What does this fold into?
Amino acid sequence: MKRILVVDYEDSVRNITANLLNRIGYETLAASNSQEALSLLEKGIPDLILIDYLMGDGITGLEACRRIREVHTKEELPIVIMSGAGEALRRNSIEAGANDYLPKPYNLNELVKVLMKNLGEN
It folds into this structure.
């Protein structure tokens, strides 16, 4: 079973996303901010990170992505950045080292498509 780390400062979004992923067969870990996510990575590497752009701890999803890329390659640990800012952040996300970008709000089909693409489950 593939394990996905869901990082979002909004409890409701994080919990809904994790529950959806659990229902469709993924194991999930959850973090409420970038620092918590970085700490979880010290304990074990998930198969993919789904991280929001905005975080409550002052470390954006882009900055967290850059820090993760200092240690883990795109092939080793795919990262998908999510944001309600629409397509405007896609380029910045890719430049920061993300494998993909998912604009919010998204539906379940869009989420699954992005996950399957980045987990090599096509």
Observations:
- The first helix runs from residue 11 to 23.
- The first strand starts at residue 3 and ends at 7.
- The two ends are 16 Å apart (CA to CA).
- The chain has a mean pLDDT of 94.
